[in-house]
What does this fold into?
Amino acid sequence: MTTHPATNTTDASTWSPMSWQSKPVTQDVDYARHPEHPHALKRALDKLRSVPPLVTSWEVERLKSLIAEAQQGKRFLLQGGDCAETLADCRPEQITSKLKILLQMSLVLIHGSQKPVIRVGRFAGQYAKPRSKPLEKKGDVELPSYFGDLINRADFTEVARTPDPHMLVRGYQHAAMTINFIRSLATGGFADLHHPESWELGFVKNADLPDHRKAQYHDLMERLADGLRFMEALSDNAVHESSAVEFFTSHEGLNLYYESAQTRTVPRRDGHYDLTTHLPWIGERTRDLAGAHIEFFRGIRNPVGVKVGPSADPAEIVRLIETLNPGNEPGKMILISRLGAKNAATALPPILEAVRDSGHPVLWVSDPMHGNGQTTATGIKTRSFDNILVELETVMDAHEAAGTILGGVHFELTGEDVTECIGGASGVTEASLTQNYASLCDPRLNYQQSLELAFLLAGRFRAARGS
Ligand code: PEP
Ligand code: MN
It folds into this structure.
């Protein structure tokens, strides 16, 4: 058990899993749009309070200890997945291909950084989305925007767009099915490091990935298998311990009804745990110091991420850290910068310096996706691979200059062969965006683009190590 004071013991008299309701709720859900739904909300929350948690406090504490090591530069965090997970995507093919791309990227990053990688999926609960406008208008009809499958449905009809509390229960059920499958895959043969060939996605063999990357990847896999055989020969034992891989879950903690209904105390530990996920994060739109989200997240024991956009005031970010982690507990705070390629060089240094000078332990993660959105002339939301790379490089330079550590990356990606982001080795162009554009929300890196980014990052790590 940690010797650091539990964050929720500060001001414990006023914090409770529901104390967020006394604060302004940004991106609140209008459950009263339907006259029956306030009753249905109570039923849904009672149900969520009574069912087993999706994760355990042991796993949450383990992740926190790994993040504490990443804060010291001993590990690297890879976080990735869909912008918006959907209930319809809760299918074995989709889940395995997400695990495979995260596994492959982590392998490339381990090789480049020579550090263990903490794998965190944006999955098993990434169902709630903040929107820039609460309402969407088509012709004369105005309806609530689509806020993700935890809240309403994407079809543009009154019934689909009316927030339905039962979706909270359906979201929980699909998260449970997803995490159940992920746990089985991670402990079973699929993620056995002795057989990296079984993680290969079908289309790696296709011609799309440049030949030198394919060769680089296969070379890496062979070296990994060789290394394991060597270790086993040395110790005369199978390398069971290190041969299974771990995955953690994360999602934006946007719907505080859902989060708080699964927040509980557990035997023989202090404080409350949000057991919907290992790592919840607070979005750029909901990190108001005086708002409901900060109130809720200051009281839980999980590690917490906060997205930091280009308009963030450095002094306010320090106050946020003090509020969310008053006991300065290592492994607790993650700051995820998402600035945009053109803002990163000016916006990041003052934030890095203010946090560094405050002495608070944080894990710095770069999300080079959310500041780089653009819309084509025909109205398609996309991002350019080049801008994503420029932001990553700028962020790495800024950390080097400030003497801080970039300890992780956060991507929107998929193991599928989609055409949502432009550029990279996969050659997606503005004209080919419509070929396989599947995201209901933000555009994701496809398989080739994701692996390409991992190789580019790994190359930069190797160069920094001088090898
Ligand atoms: C997201 O991660 O999908 C998101 C909405 O991010 P941000 O809060 O950084 O805009
Ligand atoms: Mn997004």
In short: The chain has a mean pLDDT of 90. DSSP finds 13 helices and 14 strands in the chain.
